[in-house]
User: Fold (P)ppGpp synthase/HD superfamily hydrolase from Pseudochrobactrum saccharolyticum.
Amino acid sequence: MIVETAKAIARKYHQGQADKARVDYFSGHLTAVASQFHDNELAKAIAYLHDIIEDCDIAPKQLESELMAGGITEQKASTISRVVQLLTKPDVDYFAYLETVKADPLAKVVKLADLTHNMDRSRLNSVSEKDEMRLAKYAKAYAFLTDRHNNPQPTP
Assistant:
């Protein structure tokens, strides 16, 4: 139920949005990120919702209310909302934001899944200089979150 509720909320709020590959945001990016979680329902639900505060007109308390209206307990709704807030990039240094994400196990695994999908070059028809810069930033973020920043892995 938790994943189905998160999917319904994500589908509702991201309706009409497209990702950087110009694919429907829900069926493209969000579904790809969530599909990386097979036996962690909470992480899968958060994956569907990870961009909702940043990209949609919804506040954390409203997200909690909608989760509870969908049958999710107050405790789980609060946890989901808290982690989604951590994953919402504030107007601070990107690596300061990543420090906060790295400190929370749920936020970290969802962000790693998000970065994995974002770094997938096969999603793009062509790769511009702007795309290259964004991909390099994602690779550095992935290395930072996995403590490989002294020996980063090549970008997939």
Summary: The chain has one domain: 1-146. Residues 129-145 form the longest helix (17 residues).
